[in-house]
């Protein structure tokens, strides 16, 4: 799988490791910098490796605001992740060229959504996702396994894509209903079970969708 690569610039080890673990779990490749000087070096030496940078504002050495000029020069989009919640800091970050600004603490699912939105907007999001020989062609809106196209219903495709983009994350049936069918959908959670069963039947990769007792489902990779 050709993965999008994200540079995480964060001086707190626990946050850096949490971001890295969660982003890798959902299919991104990551690189890490723990202070402004290390980040400057990685940005300066970048040759198109990084598709996005997640940047803490308050860093030892050059801070996040100091780093954004180099990121802009390398055309690496930036999302600030910071405890600085004041409006002046948000405005400054956005005016300097950041794509987005998130205040800590934040929900990981929201971060995933914002990362994906920025990659789409900057036309950096990879146009396919592949796991175990099962490829989702995002441009053609089709699924191929071992080189052969597999016919999926629209909601089966959407559900599979959601699982592929959120690998190793457990979801309840109600969460899946909300994400795939929409919050105003009046159907029962049994709908999710039927679609998961269909994906398991049609695709070898469907076996990776594991049932979590008393909860829901998770795509294990």
How would you explain this protein's 3D organization?
This protein is α/β, with parallel strands linked by helices. It has two domains: 5-121, Rossmann fold (3-Layer(aba) Sandwich), CATH 3.40.50.2300; 128-219, Arc Repressor Mutant, subunit A, CATH 1.10.10. It has eight helices and twelve strands. It has a five-stranded parallel beta sheet with strand order 2-1-3-4-5, sandwiched between helices. A four-stranded antiparallel beta sheet has the order 6-7-8-9, with helices on one face. Helix 1 links the parallel strand 1 (5-9) and strand 2. Helix 2 packs parallel to helix 3, helix 6 (154-165) crosses helix 7 and helix 6 crosses helix 8 (190-202). It is elongated, with a radius of gyration of 19 Å. It starts with a strand and ends with a strand.
From the structure above, extract its key features.
221 residues, alpha/beta, Rossmann fold, Arc Repressor Mutant, subunit A, 2 domains, five-stranded parallel beta sheet, four-stranded antiparallel beta sheet, 12 strands, 41% helix, 22% strand, elongated
Instruction: Quickly give the structural class.
Output: alpha/beta
**End-to-end distance, in Å?**
12 Å
SSE sequence, one letter per element: EHEHEHEHEHEEEEHEHHEE
What percentage of amino acids are in beta strands? 15-25%
Question: In the CATH classification, which architecture of the largest domain applies?
Answer: 3-Layer(aba) Sandwich
The CATH superfamily label of the largest domain reads Response regulator
The CATH top-level class label of the largest domain = Alpha Beta
CATH topology grouping of the largest domain = Rossmann fold
Tell me how many strands there are: 12
Widest beta sheet: strand line-up: 2-1-3-4-5
The helix fraction, in percent, is 40-55%
What is the average per-residue confidence, as pLDDT, rounded to a whole number? 92
């Amino acid at each position: 799988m050709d993965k999008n690569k994200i540079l995480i610039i964060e001086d707190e080890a626990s946050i850096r490791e949490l971001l890295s673990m969660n982003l890798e779990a959902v299919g991104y490749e990551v690189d890490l910098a723990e202070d402004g000087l290390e980040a400057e070096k990685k940005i300066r030496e970048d040759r198109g490796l990084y598709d996005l940078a997640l940047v803490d504002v308050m860093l030892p050495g050059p801070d996040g605001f100091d780093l954004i000029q180099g990121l802009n020069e390398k055309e690496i989009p930036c999302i600030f992740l910071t405890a600085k919640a004041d409006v002046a800091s948000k405005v400054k970050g956005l005016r300097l060229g950041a794509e987005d600004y998130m205040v800590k603490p934040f929900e990981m699912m929201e971060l995933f959504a914002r990362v994906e939105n920025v990659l789409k907007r900057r036309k950096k999001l990879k146009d396919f996702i592949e796991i175990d020989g099962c490829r989702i062609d995002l441009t053609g809106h089709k699924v191929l396994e071992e080189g052969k196209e597999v016919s999926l219903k629209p909601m089966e495709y959407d559900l599979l894509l959601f699982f592929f983009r959120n690998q190793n994350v457990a979801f309840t049936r109600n969460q899946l209903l909300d994400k795939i069918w929409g919050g105003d959908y009046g159907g029962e959670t049994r709908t999710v079970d039927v679609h998961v069963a269909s994906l398991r039947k049609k695709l070898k990769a469907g076996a990776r969708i594991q049932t979590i007792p008393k909860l829901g489902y998770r795509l294990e990779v």
